[in-house]
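Hi V.,

You were right to ask for the full record rather than a summary. Here it is.
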Amino acid sequence: MSETRVRRRVDVGRAILVAEGILLLLLGLAALMTGNGTVVGFQVNQPHGIALAVTGFVALVVAATRRLVLPFAVLQFLVYGAAYLYGSNIQGQHTGDMWQFNQADSWLHLGLAVVALVIGFAVAAARGARQRHAK
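Predicted structure:
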């Protein structure tokens, strides 16, 4: 695979990460301004808003580097995959936890885990192709 195609795959992962970062940062800031309530169908509160805003900000910082995109994608998959599993299991129960997930939140978390997989596979495939090309 040519170096141009390898770079293109990494850049696709980074572009997805930038779009995700912007959306999460905006959603997190909206959640922080709203306080407790609903923003675009998502149940939000201060801790949830902070988590979304921080994830969005870190995604934008990481997208500026090629080296950190894959580790960030793996971490995002693990964290949001766990958030999806947790949120799916507590729906309908009033656990009194600080997150207050609803069904829309669970779908968001699943979507973020899937996006992380897409980014991770794109970058990992590009790295593998680069290593094969170097031989």
